[in-house]
Amino acid sequence: MRLVHTADWHLGKLFYGDYLTDEQDYLLKEQFLPFLRDCRPDAVILAGDVYDRSLPPVDAVALFDEVVTKITKDMKLPFFVISGNHDSASRLSFGSRLLEQGGLYISGDLRHLGGPVVLSDDWGPVSFVSLPFAEPAAVRHCSQDDMIRDWDQALQYLCRQQRQQVTTARSVCIAHAFVAGGAVSDSERPLSVGGTEVVSPALFAGFSYTALGHLHGPQQVGGQMIRYAGSLLKYSFSEAGQKKGAVLAEIDKDGGVCSETIPLAPRHDVRIMTGFFDDIMGDGTAVHDDFVLLRLQDTQPILDGMAKARRKFPRALALEMPQRQLSDTAGERRLDLQQSTAQQLFESFVSAMRPQQGLTAAEKSCLQDLWQELEREEREESR
């Protein structure tokens, strides 16, 4: 059985203040859907985080509706979707039992979580088990089991309830969780504090293949049969070096699995450019339309740096100067925010921006007059 495994689409994602819906639209329509038409899988999987938030923008919902229609109605492919920690499980599950008739299997609301779905290939049946994201408290309430206190116990309960209904030799598990051993990225929202969200890969023992969502880097955890597809796009600069795409997995007649990541090319990539500002701006070959983070080696402030950078890189989003954080004045800026006056904080800011030159005598005199005027106005307004 041939499967296409994706996860973490995060439709409606904001990236440095701008929606990525157009970028997601391009990748899904111009890359992902043509790939499905070419490889003709037996099923498509989206392992959680369909949207970036529980109340997604209208454009994001419209995009998902269009893509789902093309997969299930036009291509006649079974499509398995589970809710992730960014989704609203109840909203995503609306009409799910009715939609199953069209080959769209959505699992989110625990109250309506059905049993395994069985598909068949030339070698017989394969069961698909869906384990949507659910917090321990939600599973405890649904199960009436007060012993469920952590994420591992919660997922173990859901997995056990589903597994006992599996009667086929081959099976696929779809889950959205942080499995121990996985590598994280900056764009993932923590499930909890202190590492208690981690679950054991042993929970998925016995499944032919486990299609995971939540971690944004494509990776295997605990072997070839447990795999994260990774996010649809690069959603943070920490993911700049990752190769995004979809996982193509094939299950043979004995339940053995071979899988590979099929790359999908975005319209605009995400990249980090490192060097001195003048060198980067003067490099005639470094001209492109990608989303850019400039990580500068300069130690002195760059006047109007972002505006200058965007003349060459229209999608420059951020500028970092890590060397300036190691300047000689770093220790002098460690002020107690609760005890420092506004004037002291401003002087610290000036020292950070001009490490070689603080405030001049004339500037300090002007600043003193300004603070006195502001304090006078505040006293008058409070009367």
TrEMBL record:
Instruction: Name the source's superkingdom.
Output: Bacteria
User: What InterPro entries is this protein classified in?
Assistant: Calcineurin-like_PHP, DNA_Repair-Maintenance_Comp, Metallo-depent_PP-like, Mre11_N, SbcD, SbcD_C
* Task performed by this protein: SbcCD cleaves DNA hairpin structures. These structures can inhibit DNA replication and are intermediates in certain DNA recombination reactions. The complex acts as a 3'->5' double strand exonuclease that can open hairpins. It also has a 5' single-strand endonuclease activity.
Q: Which UniProt keywords apply?
A: DNA recombination, DNA replication, Endonuclease, Exonuclease, Hydrolase, Nuclease
Question: What's a BP term from Gene Ontology annotated to this protein?
Answer: DNA recombination
Q: Which residues form the Nuclease SbcCD subunit D C-terminal domain?
A: 267-353
Q: Spell out the molecular function terms from Gene Ontology.
A: 3'-5' exonuclease activity; endonuclease activity
- Organism listed in the record: Megasphaera vaginalis
Q: Which family does it belong to?
A: Belongs to the SbcD family.
- Specify the protein name: Nuclease SbcCD subunit D
Calcineurin-like phosphoesterase domain location:
1-104
